[in-house]
């Protein structure tokens, strides 16, 4: 198995595992605040899907994320996530997570669209490295990620 095939299998496995975990999630549990440091399940689900869309489509593929184009205002989250970086990210994300309203049906449809459109890894050559391109700066500025070191120090 090649590195690329292994990564593709890991992504599929992670999606399947998460999908199985939330398969029976009911609307009445989406916004329940479990207390302590834990966050509501709906906001975690939304964060995961929005992050994949923004990082893979926007930053790595240099395409506009679905959440800002054809799925704008249809992601299932009533407000955008806070910027990924900044000194207050943890506080802002916790506040967002505890206050965002999530439409579970819409979020699941958005997740299907994100997964379907995410073919980035299959288009990469074996042993290739993701390179920084000018377009990343544009999406990084829009979505609050100007430090790409964590992406480019890894081989994908």
Please give a structural write-up.
The protein is mostly helical and 156 residues long. The chain has a single domain (3-152), classed as dinb family like domain (Four Helix Bundle (Hemerythrin (Met), subunit A), Up-down Bundle), CATH 1.20.120. It contains 7 helices and no strands. The protein has helices at residues 3-22, 27-30, 41-60, 89-99, 104-117, 134-143, 149-152. The longest helix is centred in the N-terminal third of the chain and has 20 residues, at 3-22. The two termini are 15 Å apart.
Short description:
53% of the residues lie in helices and 0% in strands. With 156 residues, it is mostly helical. α3 runs parallel beside α5.
* Mean pLDDT across residues: 79
Q: State the major sheet.
A: none
CATH homologous superfamily assignment = dinb family like domain
Q: Per the principal axes of the C-alpha atoms, what is the gross shape?
A: globular
Write down the Rg. 16 Å
Q: Uncertain segments of ≥5 residues (pLDDT<50)?
A: 130-139, 147-156
> What is the highest CATH level, the class?
Mainly Alpha
The level of helicity is 40-55%
Number of helices: 7
Number of domains: 1
Specify the structural class. Answer: mainly alpha
Beta-strand portion reads under 5%
Distance between termini? 15 Å
Order of helices and strands: HHHHHHH
Number of strands: 0
**CATH architecture label:** Up-down Bundle
CATH topology: Four Helix Bundle (Hemerythrin (Met), subunit A)
Write the topology of this structure.
Blueprint: H1 3-22, H2 27-30, H3 41-60, H4 89-99, H5 104-117, H6 134-143, H7 149-152
């Amino acid at each position: 198995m090649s590195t690329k095939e292994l990564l593709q299998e890991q992504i599929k496995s992670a999606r399947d595992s998460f999908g199985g975990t939330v398969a029976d999630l009911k609307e009445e549990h989406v916004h329940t605040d479990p207390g302590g440091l834990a966050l509501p399940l709906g906001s975690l689900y939304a964060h995961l899907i929005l992050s994949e869309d923004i990082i893979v489509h926007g930053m790595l593929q240099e395409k506009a994320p679905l959440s800002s184009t054809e799925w704008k205002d249809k992601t299932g989250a009533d407000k955008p996530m806070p910027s990924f970086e900044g000194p207050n990210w943890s506080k802002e994300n916790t506040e967002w997570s505890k206050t965002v309203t999530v439409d579970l049906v819409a979020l699941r449809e958005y997740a299907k669209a994100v997964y379907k459109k995410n073919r980035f890894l299959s288009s990469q050559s074996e042993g290739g490295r993701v390179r920084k391109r000018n377009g990343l700066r544009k999406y990084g500025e829009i979505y609050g990620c100007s430090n790409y070191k964590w992406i480019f120090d890894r081989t994908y």
